[in-house]
């Protein structure tokens, strides 16, 4: 039978581990705000070009990555604002600019990238062709991205949006909207005059023959 002390230690140990790991890794970031916590295991590259605002939480199994470039450019390419929560298994990969404003919540396994792999050359494997289609990504304050959401290059998501689970965001979403699907489309938005969230009419679908 597990003693009460052992049970208490099992509950406390992950928190202590996260605090210790956060302290050790904090110096690798361009900025590591007060109260930030990073839980191991954590995969990363080029954290010198990543800024975390205060009290950002990055849960276990995440991959935070800035694509290396030749030259001396060490500017911040990934900027995560204060009070954001990054869910387990999330991947954020920046080549030019990804900005995540304050109080953004990412559920598990969210993928955000401002670039894609090039594939046009057929004489070499895709894994050796580098990246292309680089375009900035911006996610507004207070937005929630559901589980397994994918955000592709060039997308702007406005403030206080909800993007439903398993959605693929290929084009920008205006502020105060709910979007779902692959590709994601807006299905509900806030009427600023009435203060009510309203459903949008669905696009007509082809009738099966």
Description:
The chain has 209 residues and is mainly beta. It has one domain (28-194): 3 Solenoid (UDP N-Acetylglucosamine Acyltransferase, domain 1), CATH 2.160.10.10. The protein has one helix and 23 strands. The protein has one helix spanning 4-25, and strands at residues 31-32, 37-38, 42-45, 50-52, 57-58, 62-66, 78-80, 85-86, 91-94, 98-100, 105-106, 111-113, 116-117, 131-132, 137-139, 144-145, 150-151, 156-157, 162-163, 168-169, 177-180, 185-190, 197-199. Strand 22 and strand 23 (197-199) form a beta hairpin. Mean pLDDT is 92; it is low at 205-209.
List keywords for this structure.
209 residues; mainly beta; UDP N-Acetylglucosamine Acyltransferase, domain 1; 1 helix; globular
Question: Roughly how much helix do the residues carry, as a percent range?
Answer: 10-25%
Number of separate helices? 1
CATH architecture tag: 3 Solenoid
Straight-line N-to-C gap: 65 Å
Strand content: 25-35%
Total tally of structural domains: 1
Low-confidence stretches: 205-209
- What's the gyration radius in Å? 20 Å
Summarize this entry quickly.
With 209 residues, this protein is mainly β. Helices cover 11% and strands 31% of the residues.
Map the helices and strands.
Layout: H1 4-25, E1 31-32, E2 37-38, E3 42-45, E4 50-52, E5 57-58, E6 62-66, E7 78-80, E8 85-86, E9 91-94, E10 98-100, E11 105-106, E12 111-113, E13 116-117, E14 131-132, E15 137-139, E16 144-145, E17 150-151, E18 156-157, E19 162-163, E20 168-169, E21 177-180, E22 185-190, E23 197-199
Parallel strand pairs: 1-4, 2-5, 3-6, 4-7, 5-8, 6-9, 7-10, 8-11, 9-12, 10-15, 11-16, 12-17, 15-18, 16-19, 17-20, 19-21
Antiparallel strand pairs: 13-14, 21-22, 22-23
